[in-house]
Predict the structure.
Amino acid sequence: MSLLEGRVAVVTGGAQGIGLAIAETFVLHGARVVVGDLNPGDTQRILGDEVSRAVRCDVTQATDIGALLDTALTEFGALDIMVNNAGITRDASMRKMSEEDFDEVIAVHLKGTWHGTRMAAAIMREARRGNIVNISSLSGKVGMAGQTNYSAAKAGIIGLTKAAAKETAGHGVRVNAIQPGLIRSPMTLAMPEHVWTQKMSEIPMSRAGEPTEVANVALFLASDLSSYMTGTTLEVTGGRFM
């Protein structure tokens, strides 16, 4: 079953990890996808030249997000789905964290998601339909030591999602969020072994998640299967911190 047949999606941070898995899953289900990333690389070739475009995009810059959305409109004629996924980490204890590292993480995650949500919603309101999926994190639910910047940004995304959902529901636009837990990706695989082991010990299902398992939830939220859902947050955590 092609759940996104004929629809056009934009995915930020879509050149690797969870973002790439989401883009691949959307293409598999019939969507045409525009990926935005600081380093798009071979993403367009991987996804297929006929059904995708890859654009260099700094999500902290409104002009870059605007150009990304314009690519969807000019190349594929619509904007049906927006996935705000781009993210970075700059981990350190609060005592040692620099102001620059705090500001950069907040800018990429929270400001970037705000840019993507508000600019996509403006286009979708005109069409009276559209789905926005924001990628938060379990860190935004419980707070993680060494991640005051990341936890604050990811918690902020939940508040942003709920507020935006209330503003746009009457215009046919749905806004939902996903909170992944420990997912096997380039970012998490770079963790020191003792950190990985500690996180694994907290997961009732006793394994890390795969990017495709987050992508499948994004597919659900982006499709009509979730047609009566907005302002929700779905956890993909293997039961960690439930």
Remarks:
- The chain has a mean pLDDT of 97.
